[in-house]
């Protein structure tokens, strides 16, 4: 199963995702994205992102090495295809944390993926979170808030919306969604071969 989490910058995707992966029974794999943005203080190459040049990113697009990609406030972000394919082939579920345009590309290519949109309680709270995080200048924060308005309108294209009021609540909701989606997947895929064997 492919699980896709989107939401505006500053809503808490990274925080919620890290809390989700800190749970001892989390058994899906996080796909590390590639980006041309500069690393923030404390971010590590190959852990938070694969940080690459614009030229390298465009080369990867040309070679068909991205599952999806998008330009977001002057930088490229994308999901390397190889890791996702390899992990799904080995029978493990994959978790993507990506923005809305990339998510819609995934929806077109992998219609069975599960799409979750994380929303802020309101836009003022979103702005506070971005300011408090302190990783971007005010002009970039404003560009991200502007983008948030159009991103929130895309929420209707998702299977689930989760409000990130408290991190624990959001994590619990996402865990419930994944658990129930797994049940659905096993229920609609019984072993037909076996069922049909005795049916002459
Ligand atoms: N399409 C796409 N978007 C991504 C990918 N990785 C991250 N993003 C999104 O790019 C946007 C900007 O990410 P970033 O600069 O790390 O800011 P942050 O989300 O505020 O921490 C966010 O909406 C991310 O979810 C990816 O592989 N593909
Ligand atoms: N539920 C929450 N309540 C209050 N602050 C939050 C919550 N979730 C995240 N934050 C804070 O908001 C800021 C943005 O969170 P982050 O995970 O970096 O968002 P994103 O990855 O969506 O850009 C961080 O400073 C984080 O500590």
TrEMBL record:
Name this polypeptide is given: Guanylate kinase
SUPFAM superfamilies, sorted: P-loop containing nucleoside triphosphate hydrolases
Catalytic activity, EC: 2.7.4.8
Gene that produces this protein: gmk
Function field: Essential for recycling GMP and indirectly, cGMP.
Catalysed conversion reaction: GMP + ATP = GDP + ADP
CDD domains: GMPK
Main localisation: cytoplasm
Source organism: Secundilactobacillus odoratitofui DSM 19909 = JCM 15043
Keywords: ATP-binding, Cytoplasm, Kinase, Nucleotide-binding, Transferase
Binding site for ATP: 7-14
Pfam family, one: Guanylate_kin
Domain Guanylate kinase-like per the UniProt entry, residue ranges: 1-179
Similarity comment: Belongs to the guanylate kinase family.
Domain of life, source organism: Bacteria
GO molecular function, one term: GMP kinase activity
Localisation per UniProt entry: Cytoplasm
GO cellular component: cytosol
NCBIfam families recorded: guanyl_kin (TIGR03263)
